[in-house]
Design goal:
The complex is a heterodimer of chains A (335) and B (286).
Chain A: H1 11-22, H2 27-42, H3 47-70, H4 78-93, H5 99-121, H6 126-146, H7 148-151, H8 176-197, H9 200-210, H10 222-248, H11 258-271, H12 277-296, H13 298-315, H14 319-334
Helix pairs in contact in A: 2-8, 3-8, 3-10, 3-11, 3-12, 4-5, 4-6, 4-10, 5-10, 8-10, 9-10, 11-12, 11-14, 12-13, 12-14
Chain B: H1 2-33, H2 40-58, H3 62-83, H4 93-115, H5 126-129, E1 131-134, E2 137-140, H6 141-163, H7 165-175, H8 177-182, H9 187-213, H10 219-234, H11 239-259, H12 266-278
Antiparallel strand pairs in B: 1-2
Helix pairs in contact in B: 1-6, 1-7, 1-9, 1-10, 1-11, 2-3, 2-9, 2-10, 3-9, 6-7, 7-9, 10-11
The chains are: A mainly alpha (335), B mainly alpha (286).
C-alpha cells in the first residue's frame, strides 16, 4: 500500500525548484552582458561613454532593488549616488586613493545614510513619501553646494589621485582600464543583486509590493524588510557613485542633482521595472541616445525624452525588456 | 527694525498668494482623485506666456490678459484631463508621476522652442508699478494688488467650497468617493470641472507671477518642488491647509533670503521633511 501512494515532492523540494526557476538566466540578460563585453572591442573610441552607461546602469539597478521589488518610489535617489561619489572622491583627495577602498567607503557611507533615511521613510507612503524623498535629495544637494570647503561646491571636487587598480593597472586617458574595472565591479554587483532578489528576502519584498497586508500574516516584518531594502539600495547606489568618481577622477555637484534623480527613474521605466537587466538596458539606451541627440540640440532632447516617457507609461508594455520578452514569447509560440 | 519686518511679511504674503493660486488646483486634484499631477506648474507657465504674448504681440492691456490666461490654462487643462489623465485615475502612483514628469519635460522643450530660453519681461500698468506709503513702510503697489486679488479669490473659493452645492459635492467626494458615487453624483464630471477650475487658477497665478518672479521655460521645474511642498504640507484636498502652507512658505522663503541668505533653501527642505515626519498626512490632512 505504501508503494502505491502518490509521490508528492516534499515542500522544500518544491521551493528549491521554484527558486531555481526564478533564478534561471534569461536570454535578454545574456544578450546584454555579451553585447556590453563585446563593445570593448567594437567601439574602441567610446569607452568613456560606455563606462558611464554601465555605471548609470548599476545606479538604476540599485533603484530597481527598491522600486521594482518593494514598490518604494524614491524621487531623491541621487543623494546616495552623490554621497558615494563624494566619499570616494574625498578619500582619493586625502591620499587614500585605492579604488577598492573608495568603493567600500562609498558603499558604507551611502549605506549608513540610507539606513538613517530608511528609519524615516519606512513610515510614509503616497504623496508624503514622494515629497520626503525629494526633500532628502534636495537637502543633500544644498548641503554639498554650501559646504564648499569639503566638496568644492559649485566648482566640483578637484585634486583626486586615484591609484592603480590592485596596485597594477593605472587608469589611462582612453578609459580602457576604467572600462574593464567598472565592467567587472558592476557585473559582480549585478550577480549579487540577482542573488538577492531570488532569495527568500527578495520574495518577501515582492510580497510587500504585491500585497502589503498579507505579508505580516506570513510572519515577516514589513518595516524591517523595507529598511533593509532601502539600506542595500543606498549602498549599491553609493558604489555606482564611487565608480563614477574614480573613473572620471572628478566629482561634479551634478551627481546630487534633481535631474539625476529623475533621469534614473526614467532609465528604469524605459528599460523595464522589476527585472534588473531592464535597468542596465535602459541606462545604456538613455545615455547613448542623450549623447547623440543632445549633441544635436538639447531642447529637442527634452521633448523626445518627455514623449518617450509618456509613451512607455501609457503603453504599459514594461519598457524595452518587457517588449522584447513579449516579442520573444510570440516568436517562440509561432514556431 | 520694524520696517524690514513688515516689508518681509508683506512680500512673503504676496508670494504666498501666488503659490496658493498655483497650488490650489493641485491640492484638489490630489485630494479628490489621488492623482499626483507634477505637471500643474506647466499650466501656470502657460498662463504666464499667454500674458506676455498677448501684451507683446497684440498689445492687450495687462489686466485683460489675466482672464485670458485663466481661460487658456483651463482649456488646456480640460483637454489634457479628458484625453490623458483620466486613464490613470486609481492607477499606480509611479505611473502618474512619470507621465506628468514626461509632460513637464515636453512643455519645457516646447516653451523653449516657441519663446526662447531667455526670461520674458512684462510691463505692468503705471498704477501697479509704483510704491505706496502704508503706515510706516513703502510697499510695492503690485504686491498690494496681489494680496487684495488673492484675498478676494480665496474668499470666493472658500465660499464656493463651503456654501455651494458644487462645493459640497467636492467635499463629499474628497471625504468618501465611493459613497458620493452611490449617492448618484457623477464624480467623473465633477472632477473634470474641478480640474478645469484648478487649471484656471494656475494660469492666473502664472500670469500674475511673471512680474514678480520672472518667466522662463524652466518655470514648471522650478516650482514643481514648491507646489508639491505646499500641497503635501497643507494636507491633500484641504483649501485652508493649502492657503496656510502657501503663506507660511512664502514668508519663510522671503525671510530666509533676507536674514540667512547663505543657508539657501536648506532650511525650507529640512522643515518640510521634519513636518511630514511629524504629520505625514499634512497639517490639515485627515
Amino acid at each position: 500500500m505504501v508503494a502505491l501512494a502518490p509521490r508528492i515532492p516534499a515542500p522544500s523540494v518544491v521551493a528549491r525548484h521554484l527558486f531555481l526557476r526564478r533564478s534561471r538566466w534569461r536570454w535578454e540578460e545574456i544578450a546584454f552582458w555579451l553585447i556590453a563585453a563585446a563593445s570593448f572591442f567594437l567601439f574602441p573610441g567610446h569607452h568613456v561613454l560606455i563606462t558611464q552607461a554601465l555605471i548609470s546602469g548599476l545606479f538604476v539597478v540599485s533603484l530597481d532593488l527598491l522600486l521594482g521589488y518593494s514598490g518604494i518610489a524614491s524621487m531623491g535617489h541621487a543623494a546616495f549616488f552623490g554621497i558615494g561619489a563624494y566619499t570616494a572622491g574625498i578619500l582619493a583627495q586625502q591620499g587614500w586613493g585605492d579604488p577598492l577602498l573608495g568603493l567600500i567607503g562609498g558603499a558604507i557611507v551611502a549605506g549608513a545614510f540610507g539606513a538613517l533615511c530608511s528609519l524615516l521613510v519606512a513610515r510614509l507612503h503616497g504623496a508624503a513619501l514622494l515629497t520626503v524623498t525629494l526633500g532628502i535629495g534636495l537637502l543633500c544637494y544644498e548641503l554639498a553646494n554650501k559646504w564648499s570647503s569639503l566638496t568644492g561646491g559649485d566648482d566640483g571636487l578637484q585634486g583626486m589621485i586615484v591609484q592603480p587598480v590592485l596596485g597594477l593597472f593605472a587608469f589611462d586617458i582612453d578609459g580602457n582600464v576604467g572600462f574593464i574595472y567598472a565592467f567587472v565591479v558592476i557585473f559582480i554587483f549585478y550577480l549579487l543583486a540577482r542573488r538577492l532578489v531570488n532569495s527568500p528576502f527578495g520574495l518577501a519584498l515582492t510580497g510587500i509590493r504585491e500585497n502589503i497586508r498579507r505579508v505580516p500574516a506570513l510572519g515577516i516584518s514589513v518595516r524591517f524588510q523595507l529598511m533593509m531594502a532601502f539600506t542595500i539600495s543606498a549602498a549599491v547606489a553609493g558604489v555606482a557613485g564611487a565608480l563614477l568618481a574614480e573613473t572620471t577622477q572628478y566629482v561634479a555637484l551634478e551627481v546630487l542633482s534633481f535631474d539625476r534623480s529623475i533621469s534614473v527613474l526614467i532609465m528604469l521605466v524605459l528599460g523595464g521595472i522589476g527585472n534588473l537587466v531592464g535597468g542596465m538596458v535602459g541606462a545604456m539606451v538613455f545615455i547613448v541616445a542623450r549623447d547623440q541627440l543632445a549633441a544635436v540640440n538639447p531642447v529637442y532632447w527634452n521633448f523626445w525624452l518627455g514623449l518617450i516617457l509618456c509613451v512607455v507609461v501609457m503603453s504599459g508594455a514594461g519598457g524595452i525588456v518587457g517588449f522584447l520578452r513579449r516579442l520573444g514569447d510570440r516568436i517562440g509560440n509561432g514556431r | 527694525m520694524i520696517g524690514p519686518l513688515v516689508n518681509i511679511l508683506i512680500n512673503g504674503l504676496a508670494y504666498g498668494v501666488l503659490l496658493f493660486l498655483m497650488a490650489g488646483g493641485l491640492s484638489v486634484t490630489m485630494g479628490l482623485m489621488g492623482f499626483a499631477n507634477l505637471a500643474h506648474g506647466s499650466l501656470a507657465m502657460l498662463g504666464g506666456y499667454i500674458v506676455v504674448g498677448l501684451m507683446r504681440d497684440y498689445h492687450w492691456p495687462f489686466l485683460l490678459t489675466l482672464p485670458a490666461a485663466a481661460i487658456g490654462a483651463a482649456i488646456a487643462g480640460w483637454i489634457v484631463e479628458r484625453t490623458i489623465f483620466k486613464r490613470f485615475y486609481g492607477g499606480k502612483e509611479l505611473d502618474q508621476v512619470l507621465l506628468t514628469i514626461g509632460i513637464v519635460s515636453m512643455t519645457v522643450a516646447i516653451a523653449t522652442y516657441v519663446w526662447g530660453s531667455t526670461p520674458q519681461p512684462v510691463r505692468v500698468p503705471e498704477f501697479l508699478d509704483g510704491r505706496v506709503h502704508v503706515g510706516i513702510v513703502d510697499v510695492g503697489t503690485y504686491r498690494l494688488f496681489l494680496i487684495l486679488l488673492g484675498g478676494l479669490l480665496t474668499l470666493g473659493l472658500v465660499l464656493g467650497i463651503e456654501r455651494t452645492t458644487f462645493g459640497a459635492k467636492i467635499r463629499a467626494a474628497v471625504d468618501n468617493r465611493r459613497m458620493t458615487v452611490s449617492c448618484g453624483i457623477n464624480v467623473d464630471r465633477l472632477f473634470t470641472l474641478a480640474f478645469a477650475i484648478g487649471s484656471a487658477l494656475a494660469g492666473l497665478g502664472g500670469g500674475l507671477a511673471v512680474y514678480l518672479v520672472g518667466l522662463d521655460p524652466s518655470f514648471p521645474v522650478k516650482y514643481l518642488v514648491y507646489l508639491l511642498i505646499v500641497v503635501v504640507v497643507g494636507g491633500l484636498g484641504s483649501i485652508q491647509g493649502t492657503l496656510l502652507a502657501a503663506i507660511a512658505l512664502g514668508i519663510c522663503d522671503v525671510a530666509g533670503k533676507y536674514y540667512v541668505p547663505e543657508a539657501g533653501a536648506f532650511v525650507l527642505y529640512a522643515v518640510t521633511v521634519l513636518l511630514l515626519l511629524w504629520r505625514p498626512q499634512g497639517i490639515f490632512g485627515r
